[in-house]
Design brief:
mainly alpha
Amino acid sequence: MQYLFELLIAFFLIVSGIFGFVGSFGMIKLKDPMSRLHAPTKATTLGVGGVLLASIFHSILLEQHVSLHELLITLFLFLTAPITALFIAKWHIHRHETPENLPDAGEDELWATHAVEQDEDVPDHTAT
């Protein structure tokens, strides 16, 4: 029975390694920041999640105790990765897109990033 548990743990470690590699490779090969955004937030998050699952199964099945550290790390990871992706996407839209280049905002009529009037003291970097 212990052999099956070790195979399950090895499976999660291999899958997490594959996801981690794909996420890292995506960071290198994808061309623009909005495409590159998906590599660390999707694939690498699943890679770290696989390692955490392997660690949880190892502590429960082989060491016969529950470790809450992995659950806290998982909670932190799944809360911070989407927020970081949102900040990076908003930064990209704010710095590199003009309201004319963005798709229709629908009922809102204006994208939230471009709803603020430009200060005279702050230089406009959207033209670069």
